[in-house]
Amino acid sequence: MEQAEFKQLTDKYSKDIERIRLKAHSLHDHVNQTYDKVHPYGFHLDMVADSVYRFGHEVCKQEDDLLPLFFGAYCHDSIEDARLTYNDVKNTALEFMNEQQAYMATEIVYALTNDKGRTRAERAGEKYYKGIRETPYAPFMKLADRLANISYSSSHYNDANSHMKTVYMNELPHFLKAITADSEDTRFSLPESMLKALSDIVTTTL
């Protein structure tokens, strides 16, 4: 999709996008979740959604996919962290979009939800990444999530962020390979401009 057309659509649906944003913020506020023990968790959700605004035109295939993309960005942690079930997420999505769109949005959220596991590696193993690669827009959304986390951990200095920056940097080659889908469908793609933005952050912080 051309960038100008994508911008027109974000303007057209701006009120719906804002309603989704506020709903997602309230879900995480309800469970008292924070980001870096400093910010409301919505701070992180907004960072992820920013990638949809910046790079979404490179993956968005049609108008009907716009709201599922933004819903995926704002609600990607709602099962894992806000104690929602799959059906809770779908019912929430139905507040803003039709059945087909709500299914797509919920599948994005579900794909980004970590598996059960005792360690980081167990929670994000091959089954987890396979689910991402096979779900439309999930590779893009996972990259948006990682871009937000790397950007933050590289620019906010404390022991926790320093540790996570090292974790993210060490994981990066495997991570990018794991979310790269074998498909020519743009809904499964990783935008080159987004990968460059990630590379620029990594380069300047090494």
Oligomer: single chain
Tell me, rounded to a whole number, the average pLDDT: 93
Distance between the termini: 34 Å
Tell me the Rg in angstroms: 16 Å
Helix fraction, binned, reads 55-70%
* 3D shape: globular
- Give the H and E element order: HHEEHHHHHHHHH
> What summary fits the major beta sheet?
2 strands, antiparallel
Segments where pLDDT lies below 50 for 5+ residues? none
Percentage beta strand: under 5%
**What structural class is derived from the secondary structure elements?**
mainly alpha
Biggest sheet strand order reads 1-2
Q: Would you count the extended β strands for me?
A: 2
Number of helices: 11
Describe this protein's structure.
The protein is globular. It has 206 residues and is mainly α. The longest helix is centred in the C-terminal third of the chain and has 21 residues, at 159-179. It is 66% helix and 2% strand. It contains 11 helices and 2 strands. The chain has helices spanning 3-12, 14-30, 42-55, 66-75, 86-93, 99-111, 120-123, 126-133, 138-153, 159-179, 192-205; strands at residues 34-35, 39-40. Strands 1-2 form a two-stranded antiparallel ribbon. The model has no long low-confidence stretch (mean pLDDT 93). Strand 1 (34-35) and strand 2 form a beta hairpin.
